[in-house]
Amino acid sequence: MWQEAFGRYRMGYASAMAWILLLITLAFTVVQLNLSKRWVHYEGDSR
């Protein structure tokens, strides 16, 4: 992204790449948070 934005002066393309990377990271984070509920068991938890 850095090379696209500041090396080749393609700010729009680099911005689009950054948004895609943000969405991918967000999707992985949501999946990870949902799966982590299965990995941890708290005593006294009724689930």
Automatic annotation (TrEMBL):
Chief site of localization: membrane
Subcellular localization(s) per the UniProt record: Membrane
Q: Which domain of life is it from?
A: Bacteria
UniProt topology in membrane: Multi-pass membrane protein
Give the transmembrane ranges: 12-33
One GO cellular-component annotation of the UniProt record comes to: membrane
Q: Which keywords, in A-to-Z order, does the entry hold?
A: Membrane, Transmembrane, Transmembrane helix
Q: What is this protein called?
A: Uncharacterized protein
